[in-house]
Amino acid sequence: MKRLQGKSVIITGAASGIGKQLAIRCAEEGANLAICSRTETKLLETKKICEEKGVKVYAKALDIRDYDSLVTFVEETVEALGTIDCLVNNAHTITTPAPFMSKTIEDLDTEMHSSLYAYWHLMKLCYPYIKDKENGASIINFSSESAERGDACYAPYAASKEAVRGLSRVVAREWGINNIRVNNLSPNGLTDNIGDLETLEKFLGREYVEMFLANPFKRAGNPYEDVAPIVVFLLSDDSKWVTGQTIHADGGGYITA
Predict the structure, then answer these.
(1) Active-site residues: which are they?
(2) pTM for the complete prediction?
(3) What does the pLDDT look like over 70-112, one tens digit per residue?
(4) Which of 168, 178, 160, 173 is CA-nearest to residue 139?
(5) Nearest-angstrom CA–CA distance, 242 and 167
(6) Residues β-bridged to residue 12
């Protein structure tokens, strides 16, 4: 039996990148999906690929910074899929990296509303449907190693992502009684097209490529092969004893053991 057979999973930011690969992998594991993104054309491409795996897919173009759109999205998800079992808060709008003194309050607003606020709203909106399920429910909130390290030039990003981690810890503690798991996932060192490091170096420079190779495996990670299986585990019943954790899916680029 597929590990997510019969589960209804919301994934935000699924039009491209890691969100798209997570959606495809979850569909292959039997999950019915509700996906969203601002880019409708690419989102519909993801929808088509996932439907070809034999599952139901509801797709809606929206900006997760808009609360009313999130309310409608959750309501229509339940209409389309019958319930909600899991939530993957992946979407985030990152502003142009720059020193703290040149960043603006508008930059902070953009990043806080596209991650912390959106994740906050979606967890609350999903709660009536995911609480007290016999086999439990799972929430994954995307955090970041960049925030934990305090990388220079990422002040709004770090502030929003560390706020997400704090929120996740609190909700994990409060919602455990409702059989809801809440974990953070910090992926890093990824390319959409593994092996395409020459293209990355051409456009972004060798220093950027070195960042992808700064792990014990000395290679870039692939979202579908290297991160999606971790997401499947966290969404599946196999992770029923895992909550309140930050899991680093980065090939050991950030070792804390």
Answers:
(1) 157
(2) 0.93
(3) 999 999 999 999 999 999 999 999 999 899 999 999 999 999 9
(4) 168
(5) 17
(6) 36
